[in-house]
Amino acid sequence: MSELTLQPIQFLLSDMDGTLLLPDHSLSQRTLSAVRALREAGVFFSLATGRPPRAMLQQIEALGVDLPTAAFNGGTIVHPDGSFLVAHHLPRDAAITSLELFSTQPEVEVWVFADGAWLLRENGPMVAREQHSLGYPPVTVESFEPYLERIDKIVAASANGQLLIELEARLQSEIEGQAQVSRSQPIYLDVTAMQATKGHALATLAEFLGVTLAQTAAIGDGGNDPPMFHRAGLSIAMGQAEEEVKHQADVVTGSNIEDGAAEAIERFILGADPLM
């Protein structure tokens, strides 16, 4: 965790789901207004999410984001024109190990993101929720084998959150040093390239913008957000985040249903909160 910065924040990197977005994946008017005020104040603003780039387009437009954005937990950083600033694929061996482990779990649905598509072998009960979130349907394939060299992310999806915690610990030990394993949400376990962290994304974007890390802020709610907390000058956890996530942030704001992201922008970045 960083020490609280006394420098003015010049760049805010924000998570999307559970942070900017309400549970129905919409943006509140207060959040839209807060981001607009932030940008009008000359503070850079961008997004970092476990989502694929294609599933960020609607929010990018609504928020007026005109900077590169980080998808797949930072594994891919995309310019507004669709070109890549950064692109990291999952190593083949780590992909095989992950797929083999997840395929042995009856309560787990296995999804692969590659070639700009959301791939699966069987349509399960979690798919409808994800399709609503992403805004596009999956593609059913007979095998993931043809995609092993260019996988952006593997997701184990399950309503059994405790099982995902156990799988996270097991898989981390099996592919340590090869790939990142983190729960972006309690029902999703993500596997991405080693370089695919929001911490790397924050540092890359800050360098791209010419901003020091001490002048950056990061806000999020999930298990994939602390890597950017540790690099940012100011880190902010959402009110509904797990305690382990909150403990790694400098400050805690309201929950996403309480417009906590907007509150944080108004209070800690645009305001004159004594904590700053």
From TrEMBL:
State the name under which the record lists this protein. Pyridoxal phosphate phosphatase YigL
Organism lineage: Bacteria, Pseudomonadati, Pseudomonadota, Gammaproteobacteria, Pseudomonadales
InterPro entries hit by this protein: Cof, HAD-like_sf, HAD-SF_hydro_IIB, HAD_sf
Source organism's superkingdom?
Bacteria
Write down the SUPFAM superfamilies for this protein, in alphabetical order: HAD-like (SSF56784)
Entry keyword set: Hydrolase
Q: What class of enzyme is it?
A: hydrolase
* MF (Gene Ontology): magnesium ion binding; pyridoxal phosphatase activity
| Gene Ontology CC terms | cytosol
Q: What's its EC?
A: 3.1.3.74
Question: Which NCBIfam families does the UniProt entry name for this protein?
Answer: Cof-subfamily, HAD-SF-IIB
